[in-house]
Amino acid sequence: MIFSGKNAQAGPVFILVFVALGIGFRGFAITKGFAYTMMIFAAVTTALNFPQYFVEVNGFKFATLITPLIQIIMFGMGTEMGLKDFAGVLKMPKAVLIGLVGHFTVMPLLGFSLAKAFGFPPEIAAGVVLIGSMPCGLASNVMSYLANANLALSVTLTAVATLLAPFLTPLWMKILGGQFVEVDALAMMWDIVKMVIIPIGGGLLFNKFFKGKAHWLDKAMPLVSMIGIAFIITIITAAGRDNLIVIGPALIVCALIHNTGGYMFGYWIGRLFGLKERDARTIAIEVGMQNGGLASGLAKEMGKAATIGLAPAVFGPLMNITGSILASYWHRKPPVDKDEALNQEFSELAVKS
Question: Which of 26, 88, 157, 343 is the most buried (most CB within 10 A)?
Fold first, then answer.
């Protein structure tokens, strides 16, 4: 249909293909982790083909739902956390410090460099810097679990990075993003506090006093979070459809370089500083994956969801794909460090003797 110039007719077919893949992937263990990503692609394809249904209806702008949805997602994140996750800093200070430094230095600088190299328009470039300046999200914890990485370290890094976000994200956006667009660092700081810190604080309190007492909420929050992220991406895609059609392919390439660069740096910097294989895998995933939902919310608060919000909308689904592929690869390769390998060899020799 596309080759014959029938793009309008091809759109619904693409939507059906992604929905079918999403449903079909759930039937196989090796592809189950990609089912949600296929549904995201179906949502994005729907927004690209029928944007009029996701921008405004009877005077109501769907973009106004982005901030409340982010707050709900962050509350759900808080319900899965506890004070012990923050206490993990005391147990693994070296690994946490390496992860945080990599996450909040390499990724913003890499985002800025790529934005310059690709020559994106100012507001699109600012969006690349924005996604690079984000803390990690819950998706990184899932990927660490699947990758046989250190889940406790992953959760601790996510918790601490989230607490640091109100300070470091506006700082990097002012320094780097400010070269493309005007940035009000104090306003951004408050936006992060109201979208992240307050809801997560509420989630922590819920976890402490009501965890296990509201089983329906415990089961519902992961599903609500997934639907919320999908809807946010759909809204932003519809709002920035015209820009995305022009700049989309370049953004995809940029996202892949940024994402895989984070994985490689995180892993090898961990190994360079003597971290175990399991910890190095965690650092790789935490450095390489950012909170795309929060970036979308900040773009909306800046009044630039259709431009600054495009990079988070593109980077988010791609991070889930690359993260799933990396986690699946590592899942099939149990981590064995040199000391463990030597002990195993000595054990085998002793048995033979």
Answer: 157
What is the per-residue pLDDT across 298-313, written as a single tens digit (0 to 9) for each?
A: 988 888 888 888 888 8
Q: Cα separation of 168 and 118, whole Å? A: 25
Burial tier of 109 (Cβ tally within 10 Å: 0-12, 13-18, 19+): middle
Mean pLDDT, the chain, rounded, equals 84
Place of tokens 């110039």: 5
Under DSSP, is residue 61 helix (H, G, I), strand (E, B) or coil? strand
223-252 tens-digit pLDDT: 777 788 888 888 888 887 887 788 888 998
For residue 67, give every residue at least 6 positions away whose Cβ sits within 8 Å of its Cβ, in sequence order, or none.
195, 297, 300, 301
Between the CA of residue 183 and those of 63, 159, 230, 233, 318, what are the distances in Å? 20, 26, 27, 23, 27
Residue 82 DSSP code: -
The total of other beta-carbon atoms located within 10 Å of residue 324's CB is 22
**Cβ neighbours for 353, distance < 8 A, ≥ 6 positions apart:** none
pTM of the model: 0.83
If DSSP codes are grouped into helix, strand and coil, which group holds residue 337?
coil
Residue 207 burial class via C-beta count within 10 angstroms: exposed 0-12, middle 13-18, buried 19 and up: middle
pLDDT in tens, 124-158: 999 999 999 999 877 788 788 778 888 888 888 88
19-43 burial code (b ≥16 CB/10 A, e <16): bebbeebeeeeebebbbbbbbbbbb
152 sits in which H/E element:
helix 151-175
